[in-house]
Amino acid sequence: MSRLSQEVRQLLQEQVTVWELARKNYAALEEVQVKTFSFGTYTIRVQFNPARIQSSAAKVDAKSIQERPCFLCPAHLPDVQKGLPFGEEYQILVNPFPIFPEHFTIPDYQHTDQLIRGRYEDMLDLAQALEEYVIFYNGPKCGASAPDHLHFQAGNKGFLPLEQDIRQVRKEAVLSDGLHTVYRMREYSRNGFLVESSSKLSAVTFFYILYHYLEIPEGEMEPRMNILTWYEKDTWYSYIVPRDKHRPDCYFAEGEENCLISPASVDLGGVFITPLEKDFRNITGEQIKRILSEITISDSQMDQLVSRIQYTKMEN
Question: CA 87 to CA 305: how far, in whole Å?
């Protein structure tokens, strides 16, 4: 175990001892209900987690953001909440509303927008330093409940089905150069790119090629995406999921059709979070597949991206 992994694990143990909110919510994880859906080569777990209502139902419109104090700024943290520095820009904090048994938020010290441009390399550095954890990024309108403050999150390995899915789901190589392979995941209900790289430079280079070809929605500053990254046996793994929609139609539906699910990286990694018991009881495998397909880019959009990326590679 890396030194930093040991230190953050100790931080968690200390925080749940002195911070009542964290203690209560981590203890509640032991009681959460879970059910699993199998889709052949992959699985989705659904977790009934009432504490996550604050994230799933978060108002992230500009007016709501402006009217609330930023809960990731150092000046607004509870006195009891302590952190560990990572470099000069970030600190690692215990997430008091956990999904993982070990769940951390890693905000920039400065209040700056949640944008990944210029920061993907930081994700790779975090993954290497925190070898026991998966690092993930939720873009604005992609599940981030604090789109006004740059942050990553981390959760312990072995929790997300994605980690095993990548070895079982059918994949097609999009690019390969010996140190670096990019795959397209097939028959996975959510289109995305799996990057396996022993070269940080190669991984970063591909990321910005992809970034260049992703559409920026009108009125927004970046393409919509979720990213999950981890480091294992001298190799970085990243699953990069371009997004089409922020929330599925069922989120806004009335009556029995309503389902309060606001998918972010954890959901795309194979653990669906339902803060309401009715949604946990009623959700079906077909609904899960429909939600995943609805919020991520279409097969035709994915085809176009693959063609453009391969053409760029040939040109270079």
Answer: 34
Give, for all 316 residues of the chain, the pLDDT tens digit.
Answer: 789 999 999 999 999 999 999 999 999 898 889 999 999 999 999 999 887 765 544 555 566 666 678 999 999 999 999 999 999 999 999 999 999 999 999 999 999 999 999 999 999 999 999 999 999 999 999 987 888 999 999 999 999 999 999 999 999 999 998 899 999 999 999 999 999 999 999 999 999 999 999 999 999 999 999 999 999 999 999 999 999 999 999 999 998 899 999 999 999 999 999 999 999 999 999 999 999 999 999 999 999 999 999 877 655 5
Q: How many CB atoms lie within 10 A of CB 218?
A: 5
> CA neighbours within 13 Å on the CB side: how many for 190?
34
Q: Would you report the helix, strand and coil content of the chain in percent, each value rounded to 5? A: 35, 25, 40
Count of Cβ atoms closer than 10 Å to residue 36 Cβ: 12
What is the C-alpha separation between 186 and 152, in angstroms, rounded? 27
What lies within 8 Å, CB to CB, of 304 at 6+ separation is: none
In the chain, count H helices and then E strands.
12, 13
Say if pTM beats, i.e. exceeds, 0.90: yes
